[in-house]
Write a structure and sequence with these properties.
The complex is a heterodimer of chains A (410) and B (403). With 410 residues, chain A is of the alpha/beta class. Chain A has 16 helices and nine strands. In chain A, helix 10 crosses helix 11 and helix 11 packs across helix 12. The model of chain A has no long low-confidence stretch (mean pLDDT 93). Classes of the chains: A alpha/beta (410), B alpha/beta (403). Chains A and B meet through helix 1, helix 9, helix 10 and helix 11 of A and helix 1, helix 9, helix 10 and helix 11 of B.
Chain lengths: 410, 403
């Protein structure tokens, strides 16, 4: 496959920006019940304030220029049965030639920019911690990547794109980090390509069911006798609340993605509310600034394939296999887990350990679903510990241990 | 309470019509996966076509004039804890003085206009069938009624509103017909006011999702144990399965985050169109919707007094009040009509646990919006239930439906 890589800069047209402003001006708001707070969903005062700022004061061009300081590219990736998709990605190399190649995979309603705060930390060079070459793609249907045109683009296809991208960049061996759909896709990358190309993986959102006596007899016995920790019990409560009250979007997106897609495509306020609700609910009292939220939403609004494409992954994966997210095909490659207390899906440690060869665990006091954005030092710190000298996954990528020095065998 | 009834004429302002047009002009549509059909939700081709018609060709003023042929009113109705709500309703009396007072209750995404085709049938006078005085309200949060301002307006409050309205109209005794939320409300009207003001009810939405229990319904329990399901019942179970696994996303969102969803419904006519049109098609039985018919339906939501976002709160309030899934039963006569493409289609033995079922009718076609899709069949069922020789004849003292 010839090298189709092109340098990429986001360049939303003036017409698109003006169009958004016209729509924002025409926004018709719903009413709200007295003292509704967050009980009924995203509060009206928040949405009004954000829409007003988006219309007047928020400067997309300035934000765009700042994003464009991050090295971005596109290239064509061929996907079996789906033709060629043009994929957008960040590729930030470390000054350390033998840095560990790391692929960061986002989810929904996330995007490639979730990696942003971690970039300087992960790519920093030091004798005290490993350094990484970081690749963060826009998944197909997100950000500035194309969306597939045909039905049936499922987990394996996302994994295929991710793996082929890394290979195309010359990273024949690499490690992967992901949360949300990034967790699921990482799991599939590992299942499909583990030990061949993928050498280790890390997730901040391990999703697993209780250990089964058939597949994990050791964990099963422990499961029967070991009491849950206070943190795990709190996590259960938190997860249950999310399942009961926070799952509506999941049910709609996994059954009628096109129907909800009209809302997301046509109403900036509708898109804003739909995503903002998750940005607030799924984080740990993170102090969102309005412009920060608007940048996040704008990436969806201005996305190449449009926001409706982003929710199809729920349909494609869940309709194919409703139990897909809990599936755990064991792999021997090293796995690292980071637990953040306000992650909506919190599973006990024992269950999470069934996901693979867990060599690293870290438990944090603060942080939620968007760990890379909320707690970049914590998450990047975990990766450094996992892959650093003395760490359980040190040197998994032969010749690329993340340090300057003698160990530069190619 | 003095009589606050006012005649009501639907009259959307020019400004609102123009604002809608401007939004339609600026509509931004998503793409679609090749060959999606209806698998992923509402097809893009349908939305494009409806959008184009809405912009050019659909005549709201003509639709409005047709709506205004129905005798409509508003009045203040007191609801405990919520003050007075201004309630909009159709009230069509029969020429038969002793016609049976009947309250028709719509659901979501329905509205008062669902009664339109039933009206001439139910109010017609004949020696061969009973006649009814029909009241069809816009439920609070829907159509041209007020929405309450405070949290907590749950099923009990809907029931109170309905009963207070009928009493205010001078109908101290009446019967109820409803589907969707109208069924939920009818059943609660029965359990709250049964044998007082409410004398009987009929529903085309027998929403029962569990088999009879030995302790509560021993007769049905044993019947269920020994009677094999009919082919229609097996098909009904499959239809119900489809709904519960594939068709419930809207309900999950509406009962947990109605406000979040509400922003898109309020702001985007295309979003509202898709959200509702999906149900109009998936919940009916090959009903040949005409574009203008759909657009009229959606426009009632778009131009509704409280706005479309308010309409979905009933899901949240009733769930938070724990009013599901058990609805208390009543001894008053109850009638059931089964339509094969309804969204919950229980076997008969399950459905009979709804209450004192004295009337059943099974149809070969028709779906969730029975009053709109199958008005003759539904009217015939109601007539059969309440007519001379019928199992609920004469339930309302002095108003047997014939002069």
């Amino acid at each position: 496959m010839s090298d189709t890589e092109k340098a990429f800069q986001i360049n939303v047209s003036d017409a698109d920006i003006e169009f958004l402003h016209k729509k924002l001006e025409l926004t018709r708001f719903p009413d709200e019940l007295d003292e509704a707070g967050w009980n009924y969903g995203a509060p009206l005062a928040d949405v009004r304030r954000l829409v007003a700022r988006w219309k007047d004061g928020y400067d997309w061009r300035k934000v765009e220029a700042e994003i464009n300081a991050i090295p971005q590219f596109t290239r064509d990736i061929d996907v079996d049965g789906f033709g060629t998709l043009n994929i957008h990605y960040i590729h930030q190399k470390s000054s350390v030639a033998t840095a560990v190649p790391l692929l960061f995979v986002h989810g929904w309603p996330g995007h490639f920019l979730e990696v942003r705060k971690m970039l300087p930390i992960l790519t920093a060079a030091s004798p005290d911690h490993p350094s990484f070459h970081v690749v963060a793609l826009s998944l197909p249907g997100y950000g500035f990547s194309e969306a597939p045109k045909k039905k049936g683009f499922r987990g394996l296809q996302y994994a295929e794109v991710a793996n082929k991208l890394m290979l195309a960049l010359g990273y024949n061996e690499y490690v992967v980090q992901g949360g949300d759909w990034g967790y699921y896709i990482s799991k599939l990358i590992v299942a499909e390509y583990g030990t061949k190309t993928v050498k280790a993986w890390h997730t901040n959102m391990p999703v697993a069911g209780p250990p089964s006596v058939w597949t994990h007899p050791g964990q099963f016995l422990l499961f029967l006798v070991k009491p849950f920790t206070a943190a795990e019990r709190a996590g259960f409560g938190h997860s249950q609340t999310f399942q009961k009250k926070g799952n509506g979007y999941f049910m709609e997106q996994s059954t009628q993605p096109q129907t909800v897609g009209y809302s997301l495509a046509d109403s900036p306020a509708g898109l804003l509310a739909w995503i903002y609700e998750k940005l607030v609910r799924c984080t740990d009292s993170y102090a969102w600034e309005d412009d920060e939220v608007l940048t996040w939403i704008s990436v969806y609004w201005f996305s190449r394939a449009g926001p409706a494409a982003s929710v199809r992954i729920y349909y494609e994966v869940i309709q194919d296999d409703p139990g897909a997210l809990r599936m755990a095909k064991y792999s021997p490659i090293p796995l690292g887990l980071s637990f953040f207390p306000k992650e909506p899906v919190v599973v006990p440690r024992l269950w999470a350990r069934t996901l693979g060869n867990v060599v690293f665990e870290a438990e944090h006091e603060r942080g939620g679903h968007f760990a890379a954005h909320e707690r970049p030092e914590d998450l990047a710190g975990d990766l450094r510990k996992m892959f650093g000298k003395g760490g359980p996954a040190y040197g998994v990528v032969p010749g690329k241990d993340g340090y300057v020095g003698r160990d530069a065998r190619l | 309470m003095g009589d606050s009834e006012q005649p009501f004429t639907l009259s959307v302002s020019d400004a609102e019509l123009e604002a809608l047009q401007r939004k339609l002009e600026l509509a931004r549509l998503p793409d679609e996966v090749d060959g999606a059909g209806w698998d992923y939700g509402v097809p893009l081709a349908d939305v494009k076509r409806l959008l184009a018609r809405w912009q050019n060709g659909f005549d709201w003023r003509a639709a409005e004039a047709t709506v205004n042929k129905l005798p409509q009113f508003t009045r203040q109705v007191e609801v405990e804890g919520f003050g007075e709500l201004n309630i909009h309703y159709v009230h069509q009396k029969s020429t038969v003085k002793n016609a049976i007072p009947l309250l028709f209750v719509h659901g979501w995404p329905g509205h008062f206009l669902e009664v339109e085709k039933l009206l001439p049938l139910l109010t017609a006078a004949s020696p061969d069938h009973p006649s009814f005085h029909v009241v069809a309200l816009s439920l609070p949060c829907f159509g041209f009624s007020d929405a309450p301002a405070k949290p907590g307006f749950n099923g009990a409050k809907y029931v109170e509103t309905c009963n207070n309205l009928m009493l205010a109209l001078g109908y101290n005794e009446y019967v109820v017909q409803g589907g969707d939320w109208g069924s939920f409300i009818a059943r609660r009207l029965a359990s709250t006011y049964g044998n007082q003001s409410v004398k009987a009810f009929h529903t085309n939405f027998p929403n029962v999702q569990v088999p009879p229990s030995l302790w509560k319904n021993p007769q049905q329990f044993f019947a269920h144990a020994v009677t094999p399901y009919t082919a229609a019942e097996r098909a009904g179970i499959e239809r119900t399965q489809w709904f519960l696994t594939k068709g419930c996303g809207y309900s999950h969102e509406q009962k947990t985050q109605p406000q979040t969803l509400g922003y898109a419904l309020a702001d985007s006519p295309v979003a509202l169109l898709a959200w509702i049109y999906e149900k109009l098609v998936q919940w009916t039985d090959g009903y040949p919707w005409e574009d203008d018919e759909v657009l009229t339906w959606i426009s009632v939501y778009w131009f509704s007094k409280p706005g479309p976002a308010a309409s979905v709160r009933i899901y949240y309030e009733t769930v938070v009040s724990n009013e599901h899934p058990k609805i208390p039963t009543s001894t008053i006569p109850c009638g059931l009509s089964f339509f094969p493409k309804e969204i919950i289609v229980p076997p008969k033995t399950w459905a009979r646990t709804i209450g004192n079922v004295v009337f059943e009718s099974e149809h070969q076609s028709g779906g969730h919006f029975a009053a709109h899709e199958k008005p003759e069949e539904l009217a015939a069922d109601v007539r059969a239930m309440f007519g001379k020789g019928g199992p609920a004849f004469g339930v309302v003292s002095g108003r047997v439906g014939y002069d």
